[in-house]
Amino acid sequence: MHEALRITLALAGLGLGALAAWGLGLAGWAIALASAGFAATLALFEAVSNLRFPPRLHAGVVLYALAALLLGEHLQVYEALPWWDLALHVVSAAVLAVVGFGLALLPTAGAPPRTALWVLGTLAFGFAMMAGALWEVLEFALDQLFGTNAQDSGLVDTMWDVIANTLGAVAGAVAGHAALLSGRRLPLGGLLLDVVEANPVLYGLWRGPLRRPEGQPRGALAGADGAFERGGQPRADVIPGE
């Protein structure tokens, strides 16, 4: 059923892109097809890696590509609405922070981490900011090497992008923290939970929200060594830091 839903969403994205490109010429059609191609690439990665991604992610990839390429670039919405680029930066940084949370859970395979959950949130925030910084470096390189105008007004444009990335990264980190702690499926947090639950090959020790058990002292170790169950004391055969 999930496979059929993914196919439906991919086809719907292609159809919406085609409708949006109607009358926009060859370039509009090419952008619409490229936007649907991003979703197809994600589906292909699923098939090759045996990982599973929620339908909302497939749909989000298509919609984001259409918003950035078709609306932003081809229809020049970036020029008509200066905040459009900033909004896309916020959204992308928020999603990247959720991705960062997923990466931070990998060492424990979804089990409660050895550190407080806010530490994972800090790592998730840092991951999103790192990706945003690399994107700005890429824009700078394109401008310098090929004479493009990716950074628009230079420093001012870059700083507003960084501010937008920061807001999005904070939002994504907070949403991921809330989802892992309470199980609430808010838009971003729900995406994280969907990915974790759909991929036991990566998160085989996931047992639901990472709530601190009753009587668990703050700051005690936790994780796959069962420290939660023993009041923060790891097994004797587990070397701290491994």
Q: So how many helices? A: 8
**In angstroms, what is the radius of gyration?**
21 Å
Shape type: globular
Number of strands: 0
Task: Label the structural class.
Answer: mainly alpha
Determine the mean pLDDT: 81
* Number of structurally distinct domains: 2
Unreliable parts: 219-242
Q: β content, as a range?
A: under 5%
Largest sheet: none
Order of helices and strands: HHHHHHHH
Give the CA-CA distance, first to last residue.
40 Å
Percentage of residues in helical conformation? 55-70%
Please tell me about this protein's structure:
By secondary structure, this protein is an all-alpha fold. The protein folds into 2 domains: 1-81, no CATH class; 82-211 and 219-226, no CATH class. The chain is built from 8 helices and no strands. Helix 1 (2-21) runs antiparallel to helix 2, helix 1 (2-21) runs parallel beside helix 3 and helix 7 crosses helix 8 (187-198). The longest helix has 30 residues, at 117-146. The protein is globular and about 50 Å long. It starts with a helix and ends in a 44-residue tail after the last helix.
Key terms for this structure?
single chain; 242 residues; mainly alpha; 0% strand; disordered C terminus
Summarize the topology.
Elements: H1 2-21, H2 25-49, H3 55-74, H4 77-80, H5 83-104, H6 117-146, H7 155-182, H8 187-198
Could you give a quick summary of the protein structure above?
Helices cover 67% and strands 0% of the residues.
